[in-house]
Amino acid sequence: MTETTRAGFVALIGEPNAGKSTLLNRMVGAKVSIVTHKVQTTRARIRGVAMEGQAQIVFVDTPGLFRPRRRLDRAMVAAAWGAAADADVIVLLVEAHRGLTEGTQAIIDAMRDRIPQGQTVALAINKIDRVKAEVLLGLAQELNGAFPFAETFMISAEKGHGVEKLRRWLAGILPEGPWFYPEDQIADVPMRAIAAEITREKLTLRLHEELPYQLTVETEAWEDRPDGSTRIDQVVYVARDGHKGIVLGNKGETIKQIGQAARAEIATFLERPVHLFLQVRVRPNWLEEPERYSEMGLDFKDGD
């Protein structure tokens, strides 16, 4: 007899920078979500698909939950809660060295109102290598006192500690049923969107604090060539002329270096040679354009 197959959706939620994208990439075994040292870089709900035995775990990486100020912020937070409410299992990530912050307490309070009763919620305390064992145990007790978590896991998403245990538990708790995706598929996001995310990550890493939140990247054209290479044309949208100058850099040096770094990573991801062409365009109101939100997988109306 063949073993029963299982499949389901797991939403990773938490404060910005809690390590959700790093955990997703570790679980899936490939880079499908943008990971930077800056907070709030995940905009769309990127799904990564992991196989564990006969179970297919579809991870939904949500934007970090925070107090929204702008339309884009509000749309991102709405996307995060929407993904959590629709998932079979929720995993709340908390940074070990930060503990039960105001932000995490606000998420726990909101879960009581926004998450259907009876939904399975697990706690994953991340970055455990940064604190001592007794601190971890105290934090686990405090968090479990604040919310009835089904299970608690101590992990380091970056180093892989505890991740296998979490993945095996998730695989065992998902509903029985057929897989949603082919076994070798790691993400249900179009390659065009993943390529744009990679370029946006390079921009975020290279540029100073404020600018990354005022720009977006879209893949405008994609051509798989007969010689096995791919030509990708992308547009970097910025809000102001001054931003365009920052992105381009002196004599175009900054955008050139960003393009080289993005091209190399996209080529590794696609496992083929890539020709990447970047343009920078000023669109003063891109944060108020419905098309930009659709491209990021967000609902423009959620920003109202």
Tell me about this structure:
It is a single chain. A hairpin with a 5-residue loop joins β7 and β8 (230-238). The protein is globular and about 55 Å long. 37% of the residues lie in helices and 22% in strands. The strands form two sheets. It has a six-stranded mixed beta sheet with strand order 2-3-1-4-5-6, sandwiched between helices. It has 304 residues and is α/β, with parallel strands linked by helices. It contains nine helices and nine strands. The termini are far apart. α6 (191-206) packs antiparallel against α8.
What would the keywords be for this entry?
304 residues; alpha/beta; six-stranded mixed beta sheet; three-stranded mixed beta sheet; 37% helix
Rg: 20 Å
Q: How many strands, which pairing sense, and closed or not: the largest β-sheet?
A: 6 strands, mixed
Q: What is the number of beta strands? A: 9
Number of helical elements: 9
Q: Which bin fits the share of residues in helices?
A: 25-40%
Mean pLDDT: 83
Work out the strand percent.
15-25%
Which strand order spans the largest sheet, edge to edge or round the barrel?
2-3-1-4-5-6
Q: State the end-to-end CA separation.
A: 53 Å
Order of helices and strands: EHEEHEHEHEHHEEHHEH
Shape: globular
Report the uncertain regions: 34-43
By secondary-structure content and strand pairing, the structural class works out as: alpha/beta
Précis, in short:
The protein has helices at 20-28, 71-86, 102-114, 133-146, 163-173, 191-206, 241-248, 253-270, 290-295; strands at residues 6-14, 46-52, 55-61, 89-95, 120-126, 152-154, 215-224, 230-238, 274-282. By secondary structure, the protein is of the alpha/beta class. α6 (191-206) runs antiparallel to α8.
